[in-house]
Amino acid sequence: MKVGIIGAAGRMGRILMEATLANPDTELAAAVDVPGSSLIGVDAGELVGQGRLGVVLADELEKVVRDADVFIDFTVPEATARHIEVCRAAGTRLVIGTTGLDDHQTASLRAAGEDIAICFAPNYSIGVNLCFKLLETAAAVLGDEVDIEVIEAHHRHKIDAPSGTALRMGEVVAQTLGRDLKECAVYGREGRTGERERRTIGFETIRAGDIVGDHTVLFAADGERVEITHKASSRMSFARGAVRAALWLGGHDRGLYDMQDVLGLAGDSAGWGR
Ligand code: NAD
């Protein structure tokens, strides 16, 4: 399958190119980054230390959108919103890893899923997606008898908070418990907060150093607590999952999917398409 990478010069973009080149079923067919970048025109292979591949970094998705069967986009929300429309117009499949999309951008994503196949996940690692299932089980068993907190840590360059993964973890738990996350989420605490309300779901964010991504969901009762933790130590875990999603999308012409669908873990909750 011919794969194109958008945001190819970024932290994830470079590793996504490595993962595409390493997978025997995928071929790196296009690479795109932001107009004005000093790397535009550079051979993509040289960006990842693999010599010349004959694929140069383009400055507009429009110029190369027909060169690949599927594009993988890990950029910024405003750019991803535009790339969705470009892929929709060209009929090209899209895997999206960008986090921090607002409600309007998410709505246009859903609309585009009526015409093209899209996979959108806040976290493409297999371990995190397994954690989403474990969280459903924990929330269903522990119910309203526990206080629930989501704690996440990322590197100092991350521009959105809480992480898309932390929010999805909160959504999975809230949905399982019949709560609306928009109403029950509490983001950070400071000053005279009063006692904790049982039905809230708290989020705490740490930004420091080069942490790739840690997430813990804490279920605390009187006398015991359960913690479900995932720690990513390499971005390759996200990249391999995104390439797997790209290959899986090849079997679909339209629809909005997430990594739970790709891994066959989709249940009643947690998915965008459901
Ligand atoms: P980064 O800043 O290192 O890379 C982003 C790249 O996008 C840069 O090279 C930038 O030039 C490029 N870009 C910006 N605007 C563009 C445009 N209009 N057209 C083309 N390219 C454009 O960031 P990163 O750490 O690689 O993370 C990128 C995104 O991926 C973030 O939203 C992050 O939260 C998300 N992320 C998701 C997962 C996941 O599994 N879903 C994992 C890690 C990171």
Quickly list its features.
274 residues; alpha/beta; Rossmann fold; Dihydrodipicolinate Reductase, domain 2; 2 domains; seven-stranded parallel beta sheet; five-stranded mixed beta sheet; 10 helices; 12 strands; 23% strand
What does this structure look like?
The chain has ten helices and twelve strands. The protein has helices spanning about 10-20, 45, 60-65, 75-90, 105-110, 125-140, 165-175, 180-185, 235-250, 260, and strands at about 1-5, 25-30, 55-60, 70-75, 95, 115-120, 145-155, 185, 200-205, 215-220, 225-230, 255. Strands 3-2-1-4-5-6-12 form a seven-stranded parallel β-sheet, sandwiched between helices. Helix 2 links the parallel strand 2 (about 25-30) and strand 3 (about 55-60). Nicotinamide-adenine-dinucleotide (NAD) binds near residues 6, 7, 32 and 74.
The total strand number stands at 12
Q: Count helical runs.
A: 10
Overall SS class: alpha/beta
CATH superfamily of the largest domain: NAD(P)-binding Rossmann-like Domain
Task: Provide the succession of SSEs.
Answer: EHEHEHEHEHEHEHHEEEEHEH
Strand share of the residues? Answer: 15-25%
Short description:
The protein has two domains: 2-120 and 235-262, NAD(P)-binding Rossmann-like Domain (Rossmann fold, 3-Layer(aba) Sandwich), CATH 3.40.50; 126-232, Dihydrodipicolinate Reductase, domain 2.
List the helices and strands and how they pair.
Elements: E1 2-6, H1 11-22, E2 27-32, H2 44-47, E3 57-58, H3 61-64, E4 70-73, H4 77-90, E5 93-96, H5 103-112, E6 117-120, H6 126-142, E7 147-154, H7 164-176, H8 181-184, E8 185-187, E9 201-207, E10 213-220, E11 225-232, H9 236-249, E12 255-257, H10 259-262
Parallel strand pairs: 1-2, 1-4, 2-3, 4-5, 5-6, 6-12, 7-9, 8-9
Antiparallel strand pairs: 7-10, 10-11
Helix pairs in contact: 1-9, 4-5, 6-7
